[in-house]
From TrEMBL:
<protein>
    <recommendedName>
        <fullName>NAD(P)-binding protein</fullName>
    </recommendedName>
</protein>
<dbReference type="InterPro" id="IPR020904">
    <property type="entry name" value="Sc_DH/Rdtase_CS"/>
</dbReference>
<dbReference type="InterPro" id="IPR036291">
    <property type="entry name" value="NAD(P)-bd_dom_sf"/>
</dbReference>
<dbReference type="InterPro" id="IPR002347">
    <property type="entry name" value="SDR_fam"/>
</dbReference>
<dbReference type="InterPro" id="IPR052184">
    <property type="entry name" value="SDR_enzymes"/>
</dbReference>
<dbReference type="Pfam" id="PF00106">
    <property type="entry name" value="adh_short"/>
</dbReference>
<keyword id="KW-0521">NADP</keyword>
<dbReference type="GO" id="GO:0016616">
    <property type="term" value="F:oxidoreductase activity, acting on the CH-OH group of donors, NAD or NADP as acceptor"/>
</dbReference>
Length: 264
């Protein structure tokens, strides 16, 4: 029975990973959420192979508790870790590094992004590594973004969403560092971009819609055939195909849901 730990599992892409993987009763799913109060959708699935654990990835004590819970359920092993939890400051996504109203606000967004998207991922991996070493698959997937691609940034002249993009570029290097260390042990570390996924729970404001359309215009410089965002269902289905096919020969890769560098 393959076992999966998925962070940020209460909604969006994380929830859809749980939904699709738990549809196979042979899989055991550990859904990590920041608060059990937000886990209604997971509970409503009503599947006995889903284990909901409250664990914020910025709380090492909570992560260690989650690892202990998983260890008790699996006999001290874990096959797959999917680092899906992340942070994006959407309210200021349209800003560039030199257009913030204050140095303090820029510093806050940079540190908040780095703390969750990089430091939190590192601690999660470290805490779950002892379980993963006893697993069969030994696959660690970190959900990243094409916005962390330097070439995309330059060709598309995409200068905003800077704190998020910077943190994703950093976590791509985190992925490579672990891959370089653990390839001899048969581990697969993968930085995987889910594509442009519509995870919205409300209609966008006029400002958000304007910023989104401006972003799409820039993306079309790279991908002229791009037609729009995809659903979490489609994204996760495609991501799972990549996850299942990738081998230790490709450990350390930074690729998309399409298995290549096509981010949209």
């Amino acid at each position: 029975m393959p076992s999966y730990a998925i962070t940020g599992a209460a909604r969006g892409i994380g929830f859809e990973f749980v939904n699709q993987l738990s549809a196979d009763s042979r899989n055991t799913i550990f859904a990590l959420v920041r608060s059990e109060a937000t886990a209604n959708k997971l509970t409503d699935l009503g599947r006995h192979n889903i284990h909901i654990i409250q664990a914020d990835i910025t709380d090492n004590k909570a992560l260690k508790y989650a690892a202990a819970e998983i260890s008790r359920s699996t006999g001290n092993s874990l096959d797959y870790l999917i680092n899906n939890a992340g942070f994006v400051e959407s309210e200021r996504a349209g800003l560039t590094l030199d257009s913030y109203s204050s140095e303090e606000l820029l510093t806050k967004d940079l540190l908040d992004s780095f703390n969750v998207n990089v430091v939190g991922v590192i601690h999660t991996i470290n805490i779950f590594l002892p379980l993963l070493k006893n697993g069969k698959a030994k696959k660690v997937i970190t959900i990243t973004s094409g916005l962390g691609d330097l070439d995309v940034t330059m060709v598309a002249e995409f200068s905003n969403s800077a704190p998020y993009s910077i943190s994703k570029a950093a976590v791509n290097m985190v992925n490579a560092k672990y891959a370089a260390q653990y390839k001899p042990e048969g581990f697969v570390f993968l930085a995987l971009s889910p594509g442009l996924v519509d995870t919205s729970t409300r209609a966008p404001t006029d400002k958000e819609l304007q910023e989104f359309m401006a972003m799409i215009g820039k993306f079309k410089k790279l991908f002229p055939d791009f037609t729009g965002s995809i659903t979490p269902e489609t994204s996760v289905r495609m991501q799972l195909e990549v996850i299942n096919l990738i081998t230790v020969n490709d450990t350390g890769a930074f690729i998309s849901h399409k298995g290549n560098k096509e981010w949209l």
